[in-house]
Amino acid sequence: MTLSSDGARKTAYRCLMEVLENEGYSNLVLKQELGASSLSSQDRAFVTAMVYGTVTRVYTIDALLSPYLKREIDKLDASVRTCLRMGAWQVLFAYGVKDYAAVSETVALAREVCPKGAETMVNAVLRRIAKEGPEKLSSIPAKKVNIRYSLKSEIAGCLIKWYGSEKAESIMEAFLSIPEVNVRPNFLKVKDTDTLIKELEAESVRAEKDPVLPEAADIPGNSIDISKTESFREGHFSVQSLSAMLVGRIASPEENWNVLDTCSAPGGKTAHLAELMGNKGHIDALDANDVRLKMVDQTAERLGLSIISTMHYDCTYLKDETEKLLPEYDLVLCDVPCSGLGLLHRKPDIRLSMSYEKMQDLLPVQESILENSCLRVKRGGYLIYSTCTINPNENEKQIESFLSRHDDFECVPFTELLPERLKNNPRLSEGSREGMMTILPDEEGMDGFFIAKMRRKN
């Protein structure tokens, strides 16, 4: 009997081809493919796990496949390469998938999508992987940490340089974890977090209070499209990571403030600031990308926020673009473009795209945004700088360099604004007292992040 590959694997294959071969963003590709499919919830979860899992483990998978290939994996036809990678992921990392099913279904898929006869090679290689792969996986040499944790060697090397071997491996291990979905209640529309949790449970979405941020709620797993819920459509919550929520907490804006968000899209932090201000005051939300800027408007409308005004600006040239901006603001937020190394478990595409050279290219961009934005901070006002990376050059060193050039700014402590659990973390508590704090992904179950709070002296 001729086998035909099932719909879930076909969908995963299309997603992986787009992500691994055409530089597509996995979250957007998945949203498009799953949105157009009629797969069951179980199959949708399987597709999501296979796509994120294969992208996350691709460097490990390639290293384990290599001995069984007659030529380098990069020299193979893209369809063959993708089938081998997704088949190997099922054999080595998928829970509840039998080896024979993983091999036979992938071979059936290869028969449909690969050049004629390629399924024979796919079958032979995956059978070898099923037989010998688990042992080889467990015996990857200690010195090959980049293969063990599926990272480019240059990225693994940077982590070791920055944090030392032991801590770096702990961080790399955390990057292999499956993140929870965190949601932030909109307290302009819901009474408290418990009320939101009950709303979600009424729509068959399991949620629970987060142990770190008491105002947040967690939704286990990553295959539930909670944007389809009535609660989301009514603007009762936003999807936002715990670390990103901390930015608003630490900024601590007050009602009737004038706020400038220099890199606002897609609008999560902008909306959080508006909610914390009780939708009273004014926020100028800037971004250089018109398409993404529209997302800020959409978010504000959904959440019922009327104080946000979006404008197209390139904030590396902000000082020259004065026509529509206020001369000064009580608070300026610089959530700058960064390498994103704190999000490798949440955005595995970064494993593929980021390099040391790209990290270096980001430094002058960040510096330029800071230099332009600081001019808009009123005397006694606040400047917040944040990134979703754990690269000290983009974080602490960027702020130290800025302060060396601007003696009219100083870091201010924000320990009292942290939740109790983070106050009890000695490293985070010490950083917050100094006015800048790096959250590491192997601590507190949060994304890697950096936040600095500065004040312009009177």
Protein described:
The protein is α/β, with parallel strands linked by helices and 458 residues long. Helix content is 48%, strand content 14%. It has helices spanning 7-22, 26-35, 41-56, 58-65, 78-92, 99-113, 118-138, 145-148, 153-163, 165-174, 193-202, 230-233, 242-251, 268-276, 290-303, 349-353, 356-373, 396-405, 420-423, 426-433; strands at residues 181-185, 208-209, 217-219, 237-239, 257-261, 281-287, 308-312, 329-335, 377-387, 409-411, 436-439, 449-456. The strands form two sheets. Strands 5, 6, 7, 8, 9, 10, 11 and 12 form an eight-stranded mixed β-sheet that branches. Strand 2 (208-209) and strand 3 form a beta hairpin.
What's a concise summary of this model?
This protein is α/β, with parallel strands linked by helices and about 450 residues long. Helix content is about 50%, strand content about 15%.
Strand and helix map with partners:
Layout: H1 7-22, H2 26-35, H3 41-56, H4 58-65, H5 78-92, H6 99-113, H7 118-138, H8 145-148, H9 153-163, H10 165-174, E1 181-185, H11 193-202, E2 208-209, E3 217-219, H12 230-233, E4 237-239, H13 242-251, E5 257-261, H14 268-276, E6 281-287, H15 290-303, E7 308-312, E8 329-335, H16 349-353, H17 356-373, E9 377-387, H18 396-405, E10 409-411, H19 420-423, H20 426-433, E11 436-439, E12 449-456
Parallel strand pairs: 5-6, 5-8, 6-7, 8-9
Antiparallel strand pairs: 1-3, 1-4, 2-3, 9-12, 10-12, 11-12
Helix pairs in contact: 1-2, 1-3, 1-5, 3-5, 4-5, 5-6, 5-7, 6-7, 9-10, 13-14
